[in-house]
Amino acid sequence: MVNGEPRGGLTFRQVVLITAIFVVVTLLVMHSLINGLGSVEGVKGDAKAVTREAPGPADGSEQNGSNGAGEHGAGGYDDLKLGELPPGGKYTTKGSGKFRTVGEPGKSFGEGKKKFTYVVEVETTLKASAYGGDDAFAAMVDATLSNPKSWGGDPRFSFQHVDEKKLKNGEEPDLRIQLTSTETTAKTCGDTYGIETSCNYPAERRVVLNEARWVRGAIPFEGDLGAYRQYMINHEVGHGVGHKAHKPCTRDGGLAPVMMQQTISLNNAEIYKINPEEPFGHDSKTCRANPWVFPYGPKDS
């Protein structure tokens, strides 16, 4: 010690004072952490509490929705009723019953002896520009049917997109693949289920594709519009080429048959609630969404 000061340059009184200040600051910080700054549920004051719409599992793995109706994309699917139209873009309700021919005829595919000619049409009240235009719709039809996973992969069938004006006098295409308003769809297909559906109308050889579904899709496809549009085409054309009956899910967790009513559900028992005449019964099997006739290639049956 030199002149009554400790070697570090601080007096005993200064050391005591610094220690006291440190203790007080420590106590204030602890008090703030416990009572002043926040809680587990959120932050007090004007800031909004952060919440989670769907808590994840404890192990940190991804959480999947049940039966294909869980949270996906924009979410909200859990709040929809069975067969209800998902939220999305605008669609046309008013119909004219008149159609314009769209697309480029000439495409031919498949090797089967049973040949189906078809034209592609859009109802005149529809504004197809919202989903790429008339030609985009026609191109989707052509691309779907020409895929070997579609009906063109069936060795019995072949297809040709034709120009109706060039057909022989009195001859009509085997299929009229049409995009229609909800009003025209209901008039053509009926409204038995009370939900937006598509249909095949064999009396006029019409494959009726509901624009509301083309724009919005269906709950089981969880926002995948591309796959759902392929399903719409393949399912309704399937009726047009002779597959009148619907098919149930046969293997729990497997891919759904394309002739299953996947717009409604992927679960047999749920479909039975809406359509008890179908061969689904109370079977609780649940499949996965599938847009294709032969999902593993044309040899698949």
From TrEMBL:
The keyword Manganese does not apply. The chain crosses the membrane at residues 12-34. It comes from the Bacteria. The keyword Transmembrane applies. InterPro entries: DUF3152. Coiled coil: none annotated. Pfam families: DUF3152. Residues 48-97 are annotated as: Disordered. SUPFAM superfamilies: Metalloproteases ('zincins'), catalytic domain. Keywords: Membrane, Transmembrane, Transmembrane helix. Residues 67-76 have a biased composition (Gly residues). Residues 85-295 form the DUF3152 domain. This is DUF3152 domain-containing protein. It comes from Corynebacterium macclintockiae.
